Structure prediction request, 374 residues.
Amino acid sequence: AYTNRAVDEICSKLTAEGIDYLRIGSSLSAAPAYRKQLLQTRVNDCGKLTEVRTLIERTRVFVGTTTAFNAQPALFQLKQFDLAIIDEASQLLEPHLIGLLSACANGKPAIRKIVLIGDHKQLPAVVQQEAEDALVTDPLLQTIGLTDCRQSLFERLLKQYRHDPSVTYLLTKQGRMHQAIAAFPNRFFYQGRLEEVPLPHQQRPLPTMPNGLNGQQQLLATRRVAFVEVPLPEESPSDKVNAIEAEMIASTVVEIYRKDPTHFDPTRTVGVIVPYRNQIATIRRFLDSYALPPLRQITIDTVERYQGSQRDYILYGFTIQKRYQLNFLTNNVFEEEGQLIDRKLNVAMTRAREHLLLFGHSRLLTLNGLFRQL
Prediction:
């Protein structure tokens, strides 16, 4: 995959299924739970070079970022593969993949088959160049659909082979979101084609009216999806900081923790998504004021950096206070099959497994048609 965070997710699935694997990369890039599977860790148990070779030859599954694999061309001289599965492929440009696509051993492809898995309705590759700089004018490249260097190989191939079932296949079964969370993205972004696997957490009901709880606890106990109204602050140091929203999000995270502190896992239980780094820092300050060490480890980040991750609870703060900021929130929108696909909103909503809480100022957000329907 493109990011170490996504590779951690892959490792978690392999570990859960009891599948042995070697991870390519450094200890700094891997989550602590998966560092014991790093190649550099596993070779410490080998006394001879022949044992290292045997370890590599006998291990069937290798995991890492595309960068890590591209930096280890010697691996393909020791090991050839029947299949490479590349996750997050819609974020990858040709330069990210060329080392894997062209890897050879003894004059033959080191990887016999490559499957790209991605979602062109989620965030694309991050590219700094403007459209005019990325424009491709070479007629030979244009004949293979390469017209814009900012476009991923995945999206380029999808445009060419969308209706060829021997090349492309749409995965319609999703095993992440509860059906209540999936309802909006399924209707507005996927034309109703998504179905639950189903897994137990995707259909588990909640009580409608538990007794003896405050409003915040009741919200968490009875709602899978909720929009929480945030008033605009009278004064703010920046349009990118909404202290009222930050305090509301922080206190909600605390309530989630207090519901079940024994089973609280900072890497699985709750995550916070906001559009600005200033707001991330503000939420951190409010959380730190509660002096609860596990909460210092939860991930608070932008939607761009959350792609590929999932949490049981996702708290998404829109943060914006002025109309012009709507343009930033909706700067990754395109039209497909007569519907507007908001890539940022799609990614943010589909990170949640069991609960999705949205925080924002409705009067401002409803100036956007899609947000108004949400």
